[in-house]
Amino acid sequence: MKSKKVAIILALTFGIIGAHRFYLGQTGKGLFYMLGLGIPLGLLDALIWTLGSQDSFDSKYNKLAVQREILEAIKNK
Predict the structure, then answer these.
(1) pLDDT for 61-73, tens place per residue?
(2) Cβ atoms of residues 20 and 14 within 8 Å
(3) Cβ(62)–Cβ(23) under 8 Å?
């Protein structure tokens, strides 16, 4: 499961080179940032994730992990 906090820290520290996008499995966007086209976008990503809810982050970047957790909870009932 991808961590919202880790994504924010990567966006703030290495957002210029797209480290946060590579972490989230978005290689294409990571390359876009790495080519220098996403300089202000790393800060914008960090701001959006900081202000957004954990649920919205999970629904976008952790869909499979959330689905596995739900199935596991159903199995354990």
Answers:
(1) 998 887 888 888 8
(2) yes
(3) no
